[in-house]
Specification:
Number of helices of chain A: 7
Helix content of chain C: over 70%
Number of domains of chain C: 2
Distance between the termini of chain A: 58 Å
Number of domains of chain A: 1
CATH superfamily of chain A: Cytochrome c oxidase, subunit III, four-helix bundle
Chains: A mainly alpha (198), B mainly alpha (543), C mainly alpha (95)
Structural class of chain A: mainly alpha
Order of helices and strands of chain A: HHHHHHH
Structural class of chain C: mainly alpha
Number of helices of chain C: 3
Order of helices and strands of chain C: HHH
Number of strands of chain C: 0
CATH class of chain A: Mainly Alpha
Largest sheet of chain C: none
Oligomer: heterotrimer
């Protein structure tokens, strides 16, 4: 009925989708809350085995990338195509750094025989098994979302290069940005819950 | 009314022909019909599975199938009925078809996403079929997939839960589409209190679909992870808590009950005023109660777990909260009955089916209170009483609302009128069969016959035989109704725009509607259930 | 219904300020984790995380400038999440 594109409507749709993502992780946070209640001291013990520095570094990487994505939207709105492209490339680079960090972190843990159903966890305290089980499930699912977010950002980047995203029409970039921020948002909670519990 | 081509003749996007005009369509009406054929297929399949189950139970011992087959049959019956029929039936078919029209607009907000949801639905259904023939054989867990059995069983649980995951996604995206459409595509002159009640109920449902469905998605992901990685998140000797699986499962599956029943209530709220020729009683109360059911329904999940060994405090709290849900449901029943009071009632198949709905749903609701109260629930938990209860709600409620909606909107969707006599016969057979089918189960349950059991003690044989007999009557009734509807498709498309005297917007346009729904801008009434014009018109015609 | 108004443009400076705050809060939460506060460690860490999340939501995600539909529905989602976690504790905390 309306020939004009309703950008607010598109954003509402994206937010509704984000709610479902929040609740998806919410189910895991229910598990975390209950098991933290049940095995508090093992969670603290497990948390100490995770590398706080890498965790903090990854937090900073995601926060900075969130900033650059938000800034790229501003750049597009101001019709600065070059800046927007640069900022998005940097965000993607941050995403790669995050995943590389994660790879080394998981690799080190697996090297120490800490992974789902490993002998160490099987024979160790049940609380520790749960802690690392949740650690792998939540960071794994989060990592998957980082990858999806990067795909969305790459699509937006390609669309900017082909002038499909402009100051007049940038819903795709905006929605990819929202998704990327959501990934950041979840990490903001994952970081203290796993790396900083004492 | 000027002659316009219906959406059957006008493909969207334009230029598509033949089968492509359907498979690539963006038109919400075509998608609604595509959902309809798929959903009817699943419904008939699951109904026949149910009939086989009851046939097996008609006599003691082995009748027609062995215990393993029996286990996978009730699993399949449950999974198909829940995920492929009851949840999508009314929102996906009638919601897609009529929500945009009732809001006075030309399509849903994301038409391509709508098409994508349909494909997800079909893929999910295909996965459900695949799960039967690949891997370790039939899933045999029941539709609840409780751990630890669902993690340990050889049956092909992984594929079945993947199917449910995909179907959940489809349902969630439909909800997303409806909420956005509701807010952004509504006709400019239509205020919140001028929206038809069916659309309101879909709006409430859509919120539950968006917020509750992801919980089951993550739960099923966890089941798969447990099967493949054996993390032990629900295993006590690895530090897990099996009850948490049940919490997560019912956190979705109880709200899902309201995904199933709310649209049905919306259908009834449309039909009752039209055939009473009287404005709906308590419009605002019904709107508020729809939203209240959506909210309160999300707070009561653990009432499925009274005997699971959870804490007494939570038994108390959830029992209390459960009783709160009864209030908005009763408000609706009260409003429907009050609408009919001193109305000028015209009997028709949709109204007859709606009356069956009110009666059967009330029984379902009241037996629900028996189960919601912890003391009585412990006596009848996991017996046939529960089976009868939720069939009264899901089948007597949603199922009959679905049949009513079919008969109510059939002339609008296809432009053909069906003959009333077979419709009445089918409806009566269905209702009588229903009572014969499920009332014995209520009694069997109170006598202590458990659900999901392959065999039973001799004293339960009469009840089970009666239930099976009722089941056959029920199926015959449903087939009569369906066949009558299908035969009507051979008639000419001569149904008038407004065969019933309805007042909502879908009755102001041609049957079947043109592709863009409104050729002339729709006229938004101050109140959607104002029958003064309809009454004046029929006076003039001397009826 | 809301009107489709012109999108709000956030300046680089404003966004950088938010980033600065987020980084400071990250430093703070890491620093606090080295101090032993007993029971209070978790609430403090979660409060800081919530503060950070609010900053991301309000500015990076433009929630501050959105209309009623998005704002209220977001709050409902958070409430639903709170119910999911909170009501499970009716069981877990009293078992």
């Amino acid at each position: 009925m309306t020939s004009k594109i309703d950008t607010t409507g598109i954003r509402i749709g994206m937010w509704l989708f984000l709610y479902s993502e929040i609740i998806l992780f919410g189910g895991l946070f229910v598990l975390y809350a209950v098991y933290f209640h049940n095995h508090a001291q093992y969670f603290a013990e497990g948390g100490k085995e995770l590398n706080r520095v890498i965790g903090a570094l990854n937090t900073i990487v995601l926060l900075v990338s969130s900033f650059t994505v938000a800034a790229s939207i501003t750049a597009i709105q101001r019709e600065k195509k070059g800046q927007a492209i640069g900022l998005l490339l940097f965000s993607l680079f941050c995403g790669v750094i995050f995943l590389v960090n994660k790879y080394f972190e998981w690799g080190a843990k697996i090297h120490h025989d800490i992974y789902p159903n490993s002998a160490t966890l099987q024979d160790g305290a049940p609380g520790l098994n749960i802690f690392f089980g949740l650690y792998y499930v939540i960071t794994g699912l989060h990592g998957l979302h980082v990858i999806i977010g990067m795909v969305l950002l790459s699509i937006s980047l390609a669309m900017i290069l082909r002038n499909r995203i402009t100051a007049a029409r940038f819903s795709m970039l905006e929605n990819s940005g929202l998704y990327w921020h959501l990934v950041d948002l979840i990490w903001i909670f994952v970081f203290p819950l796993f790396y900083l519990v004492l | 009314m000027t002659e316009t081509q219906s959406f059957f003749e006008t493909p969207s996007p334009r230029g598509q022909t033949g089968i492509k005009a359907w498979l690539l369509t963006h038109d919400h009406k075509r998608l609604g019909l595509m959902y309809m054929w798929a959903i009817l297929f699943w419904f008939v399949l699951a109904m026949l599975l149910g009939l086989l189950l009851r046939t097996e139970l008609m006599g003691q011992g082995r009748t027609i199938m062995g215990p393993e087959v029996y286990n996978s049959m009730f699993t399949l019956h449950g999974v198909i009925m829940i995920f492929l029929f009851v949840i999508p039936a009314i929102p996906a078919i009638f919601g897609n078809f009529f929500l945009p029209i009732q809001l006075g607009t030309d399509d849903v907000f994301f038409p391509r996403l709508n098409l994508f949801s349909w494909y997800l639905f079909m893929f999910g259904g295909m996965f459900a079929i695949f799960s039967l023939f690949f891997g370790g054989g039939f899933p045999d867990t029941g539709w609840t997939f409780y751990v630890p059995f669902s993690v340990g069983t050889k049956g092909n649980v992984s594929l079945t839960v993947t199917a449910a995951f995909i179907l959940g996604m489809s349902s969630m995206l439909t909800g997303l589409n409806f909420v956005t459409t509701f807010h952004r595509m509504r006709h400019k002159e239509m205020g919140l209190m001028q929206i038809p009640l069916f659309t309101w109920s879909l709006y409430a449902t859509a919120w539950v679909q968006i917020l509750a469905t992801p919980v089951i998605s993550i739960t099923f992901v966890l089941v798969m992870m447990e099967r493949f990685l054996a993390i032990g998140l629900f295993e006590p000797d690895k530090g897990g808590d099996p009850l948490l699986y049940q919490h997560l499962f019912w956190m979705y599956s109880h709200p899902a009950v309201y995904i199933m029943i709310l649209p049905g209530m919306g259908v009834i709220s449309e039909i009752i005023p039209v055939f009473s020729r009287k404005s709906i009683f308590g419009y605002k109360a019904i709107v508020v109660s729809s939203m209240a059911i959506a909210v309160a329904g999300s707070l009561v999940w653990a009432h499925h777990m009274y005997t699971s060994g959870m804490s007494d405090v939570s038994v108390f709290v959830f029992s209390l909260l459960t009783f709160i849900v009864a209030i908005p449901s009763a408000v609706k029943v009260f409003s429907w009955v009050s609408t009919m009071y001193r109305g000028s009632i015209q009997m028709s198949p949709p109204l007859f089916l709606s009356l069956c709905f009110i009666y059967l749903f009330t029984v379902g609701g009241l037996t629900g209170l028996v189960l919601g109260a912890a003391g009585t629930d412990i006596h009848v938990h996991d017996t046939h009483f529960v089976v009868a209860h939720f069939h009264f709600v899901m089948f007597g409620g949603t199922g009959f609302a679905f049949f009513a909606a079919l008969h109510y909107w059939w002339p609008k969707m296809f432009g053909v009128m069906y003959s009333f006599r077979p419709a009445y016969i089918g409806a009566v057979l269905t209702a009588v069969g229903f009572v014969f089918h499920y009332v014995p189960m209520l009694i069997l349950g109170m006598q202590g016959m458990p659900r999901r059991y392959y065999d039973y003690l001799p004293q339960f044989e009469t009840g089970n035989f009666l239930a099976g007999f009722g089941g056959y009557l029920l199926c015959v009734g449903i087939l009569v109704m369906f066949i009558n509807l299908f035969f009507s498709l051979r008639n000419d498309r001569t149904a008038p725009a407004d065969p019933w005297g309805g007042t909502t917007l879908e009755w102001s346009i041609a049957s079947p509607p043109p592709m863009e729904n409104f050729v002339a801008p729709p006229e938004i009434k101050g109140f959607p259930y104002d029958f003064s014009e309809v009454i004046a018109r029929s006076r003039k015609e001397g009826r | 219904m809301e009107k489709a108004e012109k999108p709000h443009v956030l300046g680089y400076g404003q966004l950088a300020l938010v980033l600065g705050l987020l980084l400071i809060l990250t430093g703070l939460t890491v620093a606090v984790s080295y101090v032993h506060l007993g029971f209070w460690n978790v609430p403090v860490a979660l409060s800081i995380a919530s503060l950070k999340a609010s900053l991301v939501l309000l500015f990076f995600m433009h929630l501050k400038y959105e209309g009623r539909v998005i704002r209220y529905s977001f709050i409902s989602t958070v409430l639903f999440l709170a119910v999911m976690i909170g009501f499970t504790f009716w069981d877990v905390a009293f078992r």
